[in-house]
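Record 1 of the preview.
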Amino acid sequence: MAATRLLFVDDEAALRSMWSAIFSVEGFSVKVAATVAEALSLITSEKFDVLIADLNIGEAGDGFTIVSAMRRMQPNAVTIILTGYPAFQAALRAIHEQVDDFLVKPAEPKEVVELIRQNLTRARKPGRILTQRLNEVIASNRDGIVENWYRAVEEDPDIRTISLPREERVDDLPQVLDELVRPVNMEKSARPRSRSAAAKHGEKRKQQGYTVNMLLEETRILHRVVASCMQQNLLQIDISNLIPDLVEIHDRMHAMLQYSLDAFLHDDVKQAA
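->
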């Protein structure tokens, strides 16, 4: 019988060396990777029965990128996330059950090997992964993005010096998100509406007493909240289109900020003239 083929991914050299030796002694055929790029290269070129990936490889949540790739390329492989945070269990279980199991650091070798073998023998439903484009994921999580953005803005020490009720603080953010996620083929027809909405936002922030830095910080926070939403829903996202979708979202956000800034600074320009 051929040895079970296992891919172990962790950015710590000592852990790669230790677990590679342990798994080899237990009869596994082991490959290791230190980065997302190395792991993706192996996943696309070799066959594996098991993937064990650290949750954070270089960047937080990188393990999900590797799991997502394995699920698409080799859907029958057992996928296990290695994490130092026991409380993360609930989040793992919530991601459409695309991760088969998880391990909490530090884990005992006997426990790890037993967990792998249990998952290999456990009856598993064929994983049908329904992926979405990034704009669809953002659209379906719009309310959560708005709420997380509002909380983050209210915690900003500079922005909160401008006291506003929630509806005025949130202002046109839901409409801004709608503009960010509209289909690409609507770009030309939607551009005047997008410019008008962003300009009104800039004018309103000027009247409310915002500074340019506050306007910029609001947008930076929105970038961060959207990125967090993307990370939390990574296994649902169509990875093959992720980069162009990210570029498109970034360009639209930048354009709307520019429209807002132009309107915000318009009065100052007139007064200077």
